[in-house]
């Protein structure tokens, strides 16, 4: 049986300077793709082009894409990974705590995807991958802002699938469970222990485990998968 080498793509990962985004960027580099990352501070891993961008600012996203297009070519694979938490019980959550999280996690993904779709529609090819969370579907006490932002990404991906599916563009969601990064290291030990008890795999995951699933969704093998929510959570969200 003959096989052709997978095509090298131009990939953009938002928030690629640390955590899950950094692991995603490393995985795409290892697979031979041309990878750009956005970072507000610091830089992406070796072999990537770092562009400064804040996903809450449409002008900075536009400038980042223009720079990537001139240096690497049009973006073919976009991973909307940048995200924040501002955990607080509802009664104590301010408007600002709510809107900041929505503005980064959900509106940020919208801005990035909207800008990316221009080139993808022209090329009649694209892979859009949105990094959600298991709590987007399960809900989570103390995270009404975060959980709402992450479930919003599912509606976003499914509507994109309906709008852009006929142009060779797929849009999928990856929903990680508990991954060891700065974000989860900030949680109190009791909360970490409580999570661990609920995870059938009985362990937390490494960022690379999310990166592998995302790289596969971007591959030619995943051309007929769109509007899907792929859990990488050790079974925590079963029944979604
Ligand atoms: P980290 O806190 O380690 O990293 C977050 C990344 O997002 C950083 O690169 C950060 O950049 C970037 N970022 C935040 N706000 C903005 C912004 N306004 N503009 C541009 N970049 C921004 O988080 P993780 O790696 O753990 O999380 C990555 C994604 O995965 C997030 O969307 C998160 O919600 C999701 N996730 C994480 C899970 C986990 O267990 N860790 C579980 C489920 C989902 P900077 O360094 O400049 O702050």
TrEMBL record:
Residues 9-182 form the Ketoreductase domain. The keyword Lipid biosynthesis applies. Catalyzes the NADPH-dependent reduction of beta-ketoacyl-ACP substrates to beta-hydroxyacyl-ACP products, the first reductive step in the elongation cycle of fatty acid biosynthesis. Pfam families: adh_short_C2. Gene3D superfamilies: NAD(P)-binding Rossmann-like Domain. Keywords: Fatty acid biosynthesis, Fatty acid metabolism, Lipid biosynthesis, Lipid metabolism, NADP, Oxidoreductase. It catalyses: a (3R)-hydroxyacyl-[ACP] + NADP(+) = a 3-oxoacyl-[ACP] + NADPH + H(+). It comes from the Bacteria. SUPFAM superfamilies: NAD(P)-binding Rossmann-fold domains (SSF51735). Pathway: Lipid metabolism; fatty acid biosynthesis. Homotetramer. NCBIfam families: 3oxo_ACP_reduc, PRK12826.1-2. SMART domains: PKS_KR. It comes from Rhodoglobus aureus. Its EC number is 1.1.1.100. This is 3-oxoacyl-[acyl-carrier-protein] reductase. Belongs to the short-chain dehydrogenases/reductases (SDR) family.
């Amino acid at each position: 049986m003959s096989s052709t080498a997978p095509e090298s793509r131009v990939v953009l990962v938002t928030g690629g300077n640390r955590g899950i985004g950094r692991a995603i960027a490393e995985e795409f580099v290892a697979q031979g793709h041309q990878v750009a990352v956005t970072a507000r501070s610091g830089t992406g891993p070796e072999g990537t082009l770092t562009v400064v961008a804040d996903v809450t600012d449409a002008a900075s996203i536009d400038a980042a894409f223009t720079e990537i297009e001139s240096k690497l070519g049009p973006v073919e694979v976009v991973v909307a990974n940048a995200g924040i938490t501002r955990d607080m019980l509802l009664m104590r959550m301010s408007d600002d705590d709510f809107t900041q999280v929505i503005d980064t996690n959900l509106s940020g993904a919208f801005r990035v995807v909207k800008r990316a779709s221009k080139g993808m529609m022209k090329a009649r090819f694209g892979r859009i991958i949105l990094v959600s969370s298991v709590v987007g579907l399960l809900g989570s006490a103390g995270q009404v802002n975060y959980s709402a932002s992450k479930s919003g990404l599912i509606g976003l991906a499914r509507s994109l699938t309906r709008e852009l599916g006929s142009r060779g563009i797929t849009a999928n969601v990856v929903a990680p469970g508990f991954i060891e990064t700065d974000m989860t290291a900030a949680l109190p030990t009791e909360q970490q222990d409580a999570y661990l008890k609920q995870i059938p795999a009985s362990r937390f995951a490494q960022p690379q485990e999310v990166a592998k699933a995302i790289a596969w969704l971007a591959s030619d093998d995943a051309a007929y998968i769109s509007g899907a929510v792929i859990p990488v959570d050790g079974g925590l969200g079963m029944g979604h």
